[in-house]
């Protein structure tokens, strides 16, 4: 017997309809590429999203057509989030930090019909335009007065499209299983792979991610997503804000410490979200200026492990609670959030920090387990490490156009679970901790050394700005940890001082064999450290050093 409840489809358009009806005067504030601050309301955003949907229909866009964007976090991008998906087309957010060859590859693979771009990315558009075979026109996200002259390619003007279109457009009743959004993984190995979200998966993710034990968002919040809208839907925050009626603040291209701080303060932001490398820049700015936050209550840190030193700095020095989260493009993206349970509040602060450094527990909807190389499930004891598998209604089943094969079938052991490529422990309370990405694990004499632990210790040193630990090849132990470090400005930390800092904090054989100081560590398109690049550069360092100095080998007896 079926239930007798309404068959209302879960649609992205319903989020902006809700925001308009119930939070119509709530603001969306954006720093524009034109340089100024723009402000309007959810009601304005809804009207212009409908106008954009009407304009796209007039341009001949049909359901399921892919529409690309190369854009920062801003109100026009938000209008496309709703206008494109709401009309039944597929919003394809392209990461503009990718190499132009990859941008062209992705646009062709997705068969984008139109590409919208912020003026910042005009040089990129010029570089790829002739290679984008399916694109009918490029649309500059600006008004007539700012349209580029002599671009050399035919461009449409965003504001002209809006002005020429009526707000009478009515959102269609779509099937909730329809594709809504397309986002490609960074492709550090092989070609980028497209993850195609549906209206249903996006709505379920929005409900779950907004909950108090997840990102804890409400209409009382002012949310500034630093995490880009071109990267997994800014972790779902543009959808969540509509669902709960939170004011949104978009930073545009200005992601330096000073600009971010000014915007956080001016708009009295309560909640922000980003990867550790962005926060490191902001914290350095605060240290240098002595400034403090007057409104920020919480920050979500994810995309890479949050070093405990960063956690403490936010919480102890600035009174900002850190929510450590883990996810992937393939998970829409949120899988776990480190939200304390009542018993953790009875612990000492030191012990609680140990829990907070974990990636946390699953949102309802996501199921996870760790398995050994034989595919057998491993115990949740907080110590045993294994390959992390997940499943759930917002987890990828298959990549777009089957690129790279079906992940659920490729891995024989997985059997209907998605293999994340992460190595993790899970404790008795269900708190998961990533010890490494499987491809970054250091295997020394057959034993695993977790690079994240070693990086976290280095990051706790007051003179370290950034640290990455890689597996360097070693004649005796196969691989040994090698630390690559960027010092903070005006500090002169030495190799020996930093290695001495490890004493007593880990087993001695885990201690990095050497430290290399560099001016900058290469970051990928999503702001994460590119360890494969570091391995290419420094992978042979220990062997070469051994030849030159015949240095003593690290003892593993302890
Ligand atoms: P995103 O950066 O949006 O999370 P990606 O698909 O680019 O998505 O990268 C996902 C990978 O990033 C994960 O498989 C994991 O290795 C790493 N990652 C994400 N969050 C964390 C975290 N909190 N701690 C450690 N690693 C993380």
UniProtKB/TrEMBL annotation:
Record-linked NCBIfam families: PRK06018.1, PRK06187.1, PRK07008.1
Enzyme class name: ligase
Organism lineage: Bacteria, Pseudomonadati, Pseudomonadota, Betaproteobacteria, Burkholderiales
Domain of life where this protein originates: Bacteria
PANTHER family per the UniProt record, alphabetical: ACYL-ACTIVATING ENZYME, BUTANOATE--COA LIGASE AAE1-RELATED
UniProt xrefs under Gene3D superfamilies: 3.30.300.30, N-terminal domain of ligase-like
Pfam families for the chain: AMP-binding, AMP-binding_C
InterPro entries (alphabetical): AMP-bd_C, AMP-bd_C_sf, AMP-binding_CS, AMP-dep_synth/lig_dom, ANL_N_sf
Annotated protein name in UniProt: ACYL-COA SYNTHETASE ligase PROTEIN similar to alkK
UniProt keyword terms in alphabetical order: Fatty acid metabolism, Ligase, Lipid metabolism
Example GO biological process: fatty acid metabolic process
Family the UniProt entry places it in: Belongs to the ATP-dependent AMP-binding enzyme family.
Organism per entry: Cupriavidus taiwanensis (strain DSM 17343 / BCRC 17206 / CCUG 44338 / CIP 107171 / LMG 19424 / R1)
All residue ranges annotated as the AMP-binding enzyme C-terminal domain in the record: 454-528
GO MF annotation terms: ligase activity
Record-listed E.C. numbers: 6.2.1.-
Residue ranges of every copy of the AMP-dependent synthetase/ligase domain listed in the record: 19-400
